[in-house]
Amino acid sequence: MAAAQDGILEELRRLRARVPQLTGALAADVDGLVLAQDTPGVDPEAVAALTGATRALAAQLADETGQGDLRELLVRGVYGYVATYAAGAGAVVTLLAQDRVNVGRLHLEGRRAGARIGELVDCAATGPIGPTGQPEHTETTTKAPAKPVPARARAARTSRAKPGDTRATATAPTVARTTTES
Fold it and tell me: What angle do CA 15, 19, 22 make, to 5 degrees?
């Protein structure tokens, strides 16, 4: 895992170089333990623990609402952003950014870094790669199927026209009545 930690730390440093408005970056496992960090002025253990707890709640919210597996989480404070991205099956990447960061760029780079760090973490967890290109020691985990997403009913549209609006009468369906006198 030491080689993976070196690779993760290098990825975090490259990420901070690509996005100058980042003030910190860390990778943690899903339980909130630091894997690697580059967070000057911030307690990485506290941030990792809070990230683990927040990720668990956000994952539960996404699952309960039928949105699927958690991919990312963004928190905006007065002074900046805290963004967390899934990194493989067992880790997350948390980025701290100034308020003036380009959020689109933050997401782009955060997702890319999460994918690369996820590969490093997953490879370290499964063991060395064998001659066939597959991990020599793999553990199979099965995930319970996601809850089915209920179909959303579409509400009928109602006219918002004012009573004196002639356009509403021209487009709204009318019911004709006929009367006969005898």
Answer: 90
